[in-house]
Specification:
The protein has a four-stranded mixed sheet, with no helix packed on it. With about 70 residues, it is an alpha+beta fold. The protein has one domain. The protein has two helices and four strands, in the order βαβββα. The model has no long low-confidence stretch (mean pLDDT about 65).
Length: about 70
């Protein structure tokens, strides 16, 4: 699997990814904790406006709210 317009690898979580996930209208996969060698990942898939793995997204967004 290679990065392309529908697949993106990120080695570390950054809270700004919540905005990227929410703004993406084309769908695709954001693989967190993985690099080009494809080592371990948390996968978020957005299809038709719905995001998989919402518990982790909720946890991260709650952390952002608490820090404001």
């Amino acid at each position: 699997m290679k990065e392309n317009q529908n697949i993106e690898f990120k080695e570390k979580w950054k809270d700004e990814y919540l905005k990227v996930i929410a703004a993406n209208t084309n769908g695709g996969k954001l693989l967190i904790g993985i690099n080009e060698r494809q080592i371990k990942a948390v996968i978020f898939v957005k299809e038709k406006g719905r995001i998989t793995n919402p518990p982790l997204i909720r946890q991260k967004s709650d952390m952002i709210k608490k820090n404001k």
